[in-house]
Sequence to fold (125 residues):
Amino acid sequence: MLPLALLADVVLIIVFAAIGRRTHEEANALLGVLDTAWPFLVGLAVGWVICLAARRPAPWTAPGGIVIWVATVAVGMALRQATGGGTALAFIIVATCFNLATLVGWRLLGAVALRKQATHGKIQP
Fold:
């Protein structure tokens, strides 16, 4: 569960960066996506370390996703600001909302699916 959850988060951050760069028709696709993504990937790592060090909430749960989301956006924006990256209010809002929807969203969908299976007798809670 742990490696897949981390991989899902990394992919979602890269997708976020790729969509943003495509929307703004920015050049240098691969390096540009990595340039946009790296501060948020560092924030993601911080969130994961917090969850794993505290042992609760588990990083693959919705509460863990909230910790990871907050760290991702907060650290990502701080690093962008410190390195001269853009932190316009519109970008902060989009980054916050997109990452909330994705980093917490997949965890909520997974919890609902597990609960549904458990109520139908397929999985013991």
